[in-house]
Amino acid sequence: MEINLISDTVTRPTPGMLEAMMTAKVGDDVFKNDPSVNALEEKVAKFFGMEASLFFPSGSMANQTAIKLHTQPGEQLICDKYAHVFNYEGGGASFNSGVSCKLVDGHRGMMTAEQVEASVNPPDFYHSPLTTLVCIENTTNKGGGACWDFAELEKIGGVCKEHNLNYHLDGARLWNALVAKNENPKDYGSLFQTISVCFSKGLGCPVGSVLVGSREMMDKALRIRKILGGGMRQSGFLAAAASYALDHHVDRLAEDHIKAKEIGQVLQQMKGVKTVEPIETNIIIFELDESIMSSEHFLEKLAENGISIIGMGQGKLRMVTHMDYTQDMHSKVLEVLQKIG
Ligand SMILES: *Cc1c(COP(=O)(O)O)cnc(C)c1O
Fold first, then answer.
1. Looking at the chain, which terminus has fewer C-beta neighbours within 10 angstroms, N or C?
2. What separation in Å is there between the alpha carbon of 54 and the centre of ligand 1?
């Protein structure tokens, strides 16, 4: 039994999703006449109570398009030091938009409104880059799947209004936060100017992200997506998978969260484990006490049992639960961890 806990991106389409893909009506989306893509874009916009949305081949491209929409070269965006837009998009903010990032030293990938306010450069101080955008990530990836307190997001929204800043949400795993905290997506839709969401993480699609915003923003985003090479033709096959995921794979994320917590409880009792970060969703980040158990030994023991997990650097290890991680696999993982002790 191969058990892959490296990421929730490893999930594959379910039979039901494949069926939806096989029977999808498609057209040429570059001519904007693919009915399945148009239906998905309407559906996701409605889900967030926003005007429009646009289908993208990746979350990085959706985020990069948002940054381009909200900034001009030379300007600066504010994000947490763990942010995906800064760490894992290949330097796209500077490459595509010519902007710098002011990194905030937040907690588990989350900043406070005070920290954001303190990071805004005074607009009349022409020596500093002009601050024009704040990027949030929910759930936080490098922060261990942590969920924001919505009240803090509202406060940061207030700072953005006061300082005339745009407000973007990287919601690659927003689904997990919505389920874990029982939140209303429309609250997010009314707070942010743009939101990106991924279908290729815990929702099981092979490919696909969506950027949501106003009609005017999405009209502009269409051109940027074209420039970035993201125009796709019969992408309705992929959009059909995303529509299916939205209908069938969101609520079930709660199961992944339970499994993650159960793994956390076992890790906590292991002598070789120093700390386990609080587990709110499907990501488990923990640190070994290397004087008792080295990472190499631990990873080797797991590998012997067909279990793969990933190192995050600085002695941190990560496991991610997901749709293709079955109850049988879960029992095996708990058993193996208990045996390693
Ligand atoms: C996965 C992810 C993305 C998008 O990644 P792609 O691989 O480009 O789809 C963006 N933000 C966060 C927080 C992510 O975890």
1. N
2. 16
- CA separation for the pair 177, 201 (Å, rounded): 13
Residue 313 in this model has a pLDDT that exceeds 90 = no
Atom of ligand 1 at shortest range from CA of 137: 13
Cβ 172 under 6 angstroms from ligand 1: yes
* pLDDT single digits (tens) 166-200: 999 999 999 999 999 999 999 999 999 999 999 99
Nearest-10 crossing angle of helices 59-70, 215-227: 120
Asked if pLDDT for residue 111 goes beyond 90, the answer is yes
Give the C-alpha separation, 326 to 234, whole Å. Answer: 32
Q: What angle, rounded to 10 degrees, do the helices at 295-304 and 327-340 form? A: 140
